[in-house]
Amino acid sequence: MMNKVAFTMLSVLGIATVGRAQNINWRAFGTGPASTISVNAGLDYGVAFGVAYGRRVSSRVPIVLGADYSFPAGDKVTDDFKVRSGLQIEVVRAGPFSATVKAAGLFRRFENTQALLQNFGSEFAGVAGYYTRRWFVAGEVTFDKAIVTHVKHLKEATDLNPGLVSGWYIPTGGNLLTGVQTGVTLGRTDFTFKVGQAVSQDFRSRPLIPFYMQFSYGIRF
Amino acid sequence: MKLSMHLFATIAATAFGLSACDYDGYEPNDPARLVPRTVDEDQTLPSINVNGTQLHAETFGDPQNPILLVLHGGPGSDYRSLLNCKAFADRGYFVVFYDQRGSGLSQRHPKSFYTLKTHEDDVGAVIRYYRRSPAQKVFLLGHSWGGMLATAYVNSYPTVVNGLIIGEAGGFVWKDVEDYVSRSRDFGLLSEALNNATYVDQFFTGRMNQHQILDYKFALLTSSDGAKDSPVGNEWSLPFWRNGAVVFDALYNLGEKQQPDWTTNLAQFRVRVLFVYSQNNRAYGEAHARRVSGAFPNVQLERINDAGHDMLSFPRGFANFFPLALTYLNGLR
To answer: Where are the alpha helices (DSSP H) in chain A?
Structure first.
């Protein structure tokens, strides 16, 4: 079992060469500085804050590699967090219209008094919209898959129910997110905003916070 | 374009392959790994079969004594947090606990199986199961949702029970329930408790028939009630066996849809009711307690000091509650 779990983790990290990172205005990012860094805040399964880095790589096609780190609000900053890395590729360019695919691997951690959860997952997205050098608006569809989760039942839980089994659980879930993103570019500065809704992979149930939202401020250098 | 499509195809194929692999980690919906077994999965657990379901149930005391039937909260919680009430057995009462259908260690059912009326009927079925004679008195003790259920039963059958103790029932009309639930979930947008409740949605998702996954997520969520920033004022997290996510969802949805009113017949219940609320539950308070308890024609309203919502579950609250309840019961036996 462990070999397969290890394979999953390595594969997730492998495809995640680097970053889903941030929302990109492809027309503004197509020339000039090749790196961008941003800070963001919003709703991502809770109130969350994050920082992201992206770099356009030399290629015949527009490819951005990147990584981001985010954490939810709360007294304990380090007990819950998510790191994500991957790439995004502009696969269609037709005048101001653009379509992008994103792939990322991610690791996330959650801890409360009952359990410590550590998850390896993946995220795949498609973004299509209208882009100019000053602004853009696009629609996006993202599938956030929780592939394998290690559950460690903590003392409070095992004291109550000693038979609980800690270990790797596969598969553990997934959510589909659909929404829109928009942004304004001022010189080397980008302000972006995205908002959308989330539904579980059964297309019936929803997360407790059934929508997401993010404000982002980035600079290119 | 050709290169980008090739890259995308490679990534998509990798992703699809990962998702489709036949892994042999634990299956999260298997019994007894994330949540304990229920009575239909573990025959060693004490249970009774009534009204078409198997309920986890225990009794304490002399079966000939007046019955004190304890109804736990939730819906979906279990009676583990109310086991302090065993103390009434030493004072001359036959104390009966059961996990309501779909809750705790009782048998699970599909969501469509649950109705508010069936839960009410189960109360009557449990009373009939344990009652030795018509002369044996019956008292109900309902906490939170259990207090709502007890009141619903009394509203339907006002002559069956001889006394009623209620602790912080959300309400007996749906508007009061919604008001209380809304206040009790007001953790604060930036609180650890709120994010502990919501963040786990990206780790586990389950369909409505994947009870173990849903119950486990519900357990992680409800542990937020013990957080210091929770308005309900508990000292720490409640002891529990299993939180029934599906029955909670079913009954709450039915409440929203049917907008029940369990006060329509309470005027016929002339017996004095002991209604208690806690000092530390910021979401409840005296004003809400007066509004909710006012549905009874004859009520004794008492505040339990040094306690939060689950006042019967923690030492200080129960120490303050027990003498009041015992005096009340002894006055009616």
So the answer is: 2-15, 26-29, 155-160
- Max Cα-Cα span within chain B: 87
From B297's Cα to the closest Cα of chain A, the distance in A is: 39
- Burial annotation B259-296 (CB, 10 A radius, 16+ → b, else e): ebebbeebeebebbbbbbbbbbbebbbeebbeebbebb
CB A85, CB A79: distance < 8 Å:
no
What is the overall mean pLDDT for chain B?
91
Identify which of B19, B152, B131, B117 has the alpha carbon closest to the alpha carbon of residue B69.
Answer: B131
Residue B302's pLDDT is: 98
Asked whether the beta carbons of residue A173 and residue B206 sit closer than 8 angstroms, the reply is: yes
Location of structure tokens 């609250």: B317
Mind listing the domains of chain B with CATH numbers?
47-330 (3.40.50.1820)
Mean pLDDT, 10 residues at a time, chain B of 333 residues: 46 49 73 93 97 98 98 97 98 98 97 96 98 97 98 97 98 97 86 86 91 93 75 90 96 97 97 97 97 97 97 96 98 94
Within an 8 Å CB–CB cutoff, is residue B20 touching chain A?
no
Q: Shortest Cα distance from A131 to chain B (angstroms)? A: 18
In whole angstroms, how large is the CA radius of gyration of chain A?
A: 18
Q: Which residues pair with A87 in a beta bridge?
A: A65, A103
Q: Does A169 touch chain B (CB under 8 A)?
A: yes
Tell me the CA end-to-end span of chain B in Å, nearest whole number. 85
Q: Give the chain A residue nearest B6 (alpha carbons).
A: A91
- pLDDT, tens digit, 9 for 90 and up, residues A166-193: 999 997 889 999 999 999 999 899 999 9
pLDDT for the residue numbered A184? 96
Phi, psi of A170 (to 5 degrees): -140, 135
What would the mean pLDDT of A134-159 be, rounded to a whole number?
95
Tokens of B46: 């004490």
* Domains of chain A (ranges, CATH numbers): 2-220 (2.40.160.20)
Please, which residues have CB within 8 angstroms of residue B69's CB and are 6 or more apart in sequence?
B96, B123, B126, B127, B130, B138, B139, B140, B141
Instruction: Note the pTM of the prediction, 2 decimals.
Output: 0.87
Per-residue pLDDT of B84-95, as tens digits, reads 999 999 999 999
Got the DSSP string for B198-222?
HGGGGT----TT-HHHHHHHHHHHH
